[in-house]
């Protein structure tokens, strides 16, 4: 038995569209080519994959199994190619790191600085993304390491918590509570909470809300697309809202804002994500360096 990935690709397209013509259009090939390749696949397998008795191509039970396994085979083949390309000379010298805003502000500069000394042969290419975009960009940009919070659970990728960073309340220096040594959240009264949209990172968003509700505050929400330290920052500066930020952002807040610790402390996980199968030694060395820098605070 000898089948090709092209035959599998064509058959999967026919299975998805239920029509030879539409599959041909999607693949930018002729309809006769589609029909011929599917027939060759059936002959190689010695079993009918399609019922051609009607106007449309209906899957047989074997065809349904082939469509399912074919998608998996194509995905695996794509991943094989990507994994092999990681060993191109240019990729052996470059590490692509995807990082969320707070990581770009604090951890990543420290990592790059130390890497210039201890990993001089490795060039770090940083890819800043908005909150919630780390895992997706790690895959789509074929990056090597992701750094952020509440990263997605992805097949073939490992996630490790590097540190737990303290949560602070960010408010205007003009606010009556700006000089407080620490805050009980209910003291903020009806002041709204400024956050980015929930769809950016539902787990992170819900965690921040849980910090509020577990401490007796159910705040009105104001949405700030897509970063807190961005175009809606004036809402904080004018005492029209407060926000919850990690320790990593404290040194990067404007001078008219102050960060106050919670009376009952809360933390945010800082996480690292990478392709589990990636065995390149410079990746292992950089991950170890990132751990050291993160643990040093």
Characterize the structure shown.
The structure is a single chain. By secondary structure, the chain is an alpha/beta fold. Helices cover 41% and strands 20% of the residues. It is built from eleven helices and eleven strands. It has helices at residues 5-17, 20-27, 31-45, 61-85, 89-93, 101-105, 107-118, 134-140, 202-213, 233-237, 281-296, and strands spanning 50-51, 58-59, 94-99, 123-128, 145-148, 157-172, 193-195, 221-223, 243-246, 257-261, 267-275. The strands form three sheets. Strands 3, 4, 5, 6, 9, 10 and 11 form a seven-stranded mixed beta sheet that branches. A two-stranded antiparallel sheet has the order 1-2. Strand 1 (50-51) and strand 2 (58-59) form a beta hairpin. Helix 1 (5-17) crosses helix 2. It is elongated and about 80 Å long.
